[in-house]
Specification:
Layout: H1 3-15, E1 20-23, H2 28-42, E2 45-46, E3 50-53, H3 55-60, E4 65-71, E5 84-87, E6 90-95, H4 99-106, E7 112-114, E8 117-119, H5 122-127, E9 135-138, H6 145-148, E10 154-159, H7 163-172, E11 182-189
Helix pairs in contact: 2-7
Length: about 200
């Protein structure tokens, strides 16, 4: 199967997912622009909690093929955690989508729950200097089961871009900034060691 045909099958599969709209195959120049946009975003404070580290975008941009896609409010985000709070090498918080677990964690005096984000040691927040020793807000790469099952591809990863990258992608795809729309970026490789 030719690479162009494989890419088209992946784009078609993405469009079959509820809440997914237009897709676009990134050019090398787009990758470089996104790397710069994400580097600037990482240097900014995220959610008022710490410096960013979008590991998902970094991972996706290494792939053979990178396909951003538009999402509507109907799109179901990948399972949590989509945000992981780190201090040095220690996980100190994360987002959860389990309401029962969130309520259980709220009752523990050591935890701080902000929306669906849990910080497991609120005393740590008081003890760190956000300027010299900030929390790191990690956005990890996510799986995409709908695409992973396709033949001839491997190492599938999904990422949520920063707002500047989201804006750039919508502009690149000729779409207006509209309330309720977003972007995700999917990446995958062709060469797989298991013979796919």
């Amino acid at each position: 199967m030719q690479r162009e045909e494989i890419i088209n099958k992946v784009r078609q599969r993405l469009k079959e997912i509820k809440g997914v709209g237009e897709t676009y195959v990134l050019l090398e120049e787009d990758r470089e622009i996104i790397k710069e946009l994400e580097k600037k975003a990482d240097d900014m404070t995220l959610m008022g909690l710490g410096r960013g580290d979008n590991r998902g975008i970094k991972e996706v941009l290494k792939k053979d093929v990178v396909i951003p896609f538009i999402t509507s409010m109907e799109y179901v985000w990948p399972c949590c955690p989509n945000v992981v709070l780190m201090h040095h090498d220690r996980v100190v918080g994360e987002d959860l989508d389990d309401e029962c677990k969130l309520n259980e964690l709220k009752s523990c005096k050591d935890n701080l729950v902000i929306g669906n984000i849990v910080i497991y040691d609120k005393d740590l927040l008081r003890s760190i200097d956000p300027k010299t020793d900030p929390l790191i807000v990690v956005l990890p790469p996510k799986p995409c089961a709908e695409v992973e099952e396709l033949p001839h591809i491997c190492n599938v990863a999904l990422a949520s871009p920063s707002p500047p990258t989201d804006e750039y992608l919508k502009q690149k795809m000729g779409l207006p900034q509209a309330h309720g729309t977003g972007t995700f970026i999917l990446g995958f490789d062709f060469e797989c060691s298991d013979g796919n």
